[in-house]
Specification:
- Keywords: Membrane, Transmembrane, Transmembrane helix.
- The chain is built from three helices and 13 strands, in the order αβββββββββββββαα.
- The chain has about 250 residues and is an alpha+beta fold.
- The protein has one domain: Sandwich (Immunoglobulin-like), CATH 2.60.40.
- The strands form three sheets. The protein has a seven-stranded mixed β-sheet, with no helix packed on it.
- β5 and β6 form a beta hairpin.
- It is globular and about 50 Å long.
Amino acid sequence: MKRLFILLIVIPLVLILLVWQAPVAQAEQITSELQEKIMATSGSEAKLEVTWKGKLGPEGTIVLPQPALKAKWLQTEATGAAIEEPNPKEVKYGGNKWYQWNVTGNNEGKEISLRVIYLVPDLFKETKSEASAEGGPTARGDLRNFTYNFKNNTPFGIGKYTFSVVLPPGYEVFNVTSPKKDFKVTRDKNSGSIIVDMSGKKDTPAIPTGSSVSLEFNYVKGLSVARTVVFWVASVFIAGAFLYFRRHLVLSIR
């Protein structure tokens, strides 16, 4: 009877502590910042650069979502503290998977930055596209689609999330189809890049655990300044020649 009484008291207390600890652990990393940047390198290859900034909690680890693309890990750099192993350790829990790095020493409450670089093969591989319902330069046959689906499957919320893509030289963003709202989208035609920015509130993460972010846009080959000048000169020349050889029709109308 006494053992049963103890179990009835201890088990509810343990459950209460577990429920109470979960929000505390998440609150420690709500102030963290996660930046993801895709940069075209040579050919169709690209590099994915992931930068995490935040303060460590008592667990002494940094957890990051796995890349949304098929990527190969290249290197890891830590600033403000040392990590045990540079290569990411995969952690599986409750159907979710993420990468984890263990930080050496007592760095609780200290600002730390972690930069991870991955190689993404065949990301900007040339493909021919079909005509879309929203229209586009389909006659040129170079309308390409880029889709990136980021999911925060870690047990911690992300305070601020920024994602950017730098397209291969000579390409530019044509049309952004997603996201539609709650995001700040910035396009730079000079560098052929696009930035998606989302910031949370004081006590609310930008991307809570289990939430997703989707970026989708079309990109095309852009005209260089020289090609644009040649195009306009040629257009004016053709128009002038057309009017010259049809001048008798213009005069007859008058």
